[in-house]
Design goal:
single chain, 275 residues, mainly alpha, UNC-50, GH19021
């Protein structure tokens, strides 16, 4: 008999054992399971209900992170959308599940609208109507329309395959809110410091500066909207959104040359709505 006959050779574990081990280890893993293995994916209605319910739970909101997002929407918006991809991998949704950003945006909109009403010399009740109109119509209502448009277009025409998941409407609305914030600060806040003594005049530098604010604000909106949809892997031809940029620049040149100050027209339109 061979001197090695007493050695017992073990066989590799069967596939069922490996599968059982993997399942057990996944149950005890501190990391969230991949999206494809999640069994707790919520419906759109459930996600909306969960989001709205958290509007009144301030202690559960991450205002510090929302403020970080607002700052980086100015200096590096790509980093903001990188976080949306992380959320998709961990929580199986692109849209925000924390309303802190929306609340901070509404606070900014309220404060800047108060300043705008002061610059326009509005009365108290005119200011109240103006603030209500800006928040409900200019931000929320217009945002619902724009988000619904991009939601329908991206799902209908820009998905690489019908087998790919739909773009969430909530995410489309988040993209609008992200793109809305920089123009809000530029047009409703920074521009106010130049309006009475410079932009409201009839000089060339006045309409150049006023129209330049609008050029920057609209360009920010288009570029951040593009980033929002370009970061989704299963969308194609998202660069078509950038076609709006040369059109905006051409309009900027035309209105500046013909002597039209977009900011003065914007202010007159606001006055007309509250008087």
């Amino acid at each position: 008999m061979s001197q090695y006959s007493h050695i017992k050779y073990t066989t590799s574990p069967t596939p069922s054992v490996v599968s059982g081990y993997s399942s057990a280890s996944r149950l005890h893993s501190p990391l969230p399971p991949p999206v494809g293995h999640r069994k707790d994916c919520l419906s759109a209605t459930s996600k909306t209900y969960k989001y709205l319910r958290r509007l009144f739970k301030f202690n559960q909101m991450d205002f510090e992170f929302a403020l970080w997002q607002m700052i980086y929407l100015f200096i590096s918006p790509q980093k903001v959308y990188r976080n949306f991809n992380y959320r998709k991998q961990t929580k199986s949704q692109f849209a925000r599940d924390d309303p802190a950003f929306l609340l901070l945006l509404l606070v900014c909109l309220f404060v800047t609208s108060v300043g705008f009403a002061y610059v326009l010399n509005l009365s108290f009740w005119q200011s109240v109507g103006f603030i209500f109109y800006v928040i409900s119509v200019d931000c929320i209502f217009a945002g619902v329309i724009i988000a619904s448009f991009f939601w329908a277009v991206t799902n209908r025409f820009l998905r690489t395959s019908n087998l790919e998941p739909d773009i969430e409407w909530g995410y489309a609305f988040d993209v609008h809110l992200n793109a809305f914030f920089p123009p809000l600060i530029l047009l409703h806040f920074i521009q106010l410091f130049f309006y009475n003594w410079l932009i409201s005049q009839t000089w060339f530098i006045s309409r150049f500066l006023g129209n330049s604010f609008w050029l920057m604000g609209m360009s920010y909106y288009v570029y951040i909207t593009f980033l929002g949809y370009n970061c989704i892997p299963h969308l194609k031809n998202t660069r078509l959104i950038l076609i709006a940029l040369p059109i905006i620049f051409l309009l900027y040149l035309v209105v500046t040359i013909i002597g039209w100050n977009a900011t003065i027209s914007f202010v007159n339109f606001y006055k007309y709505r509250v008087y």
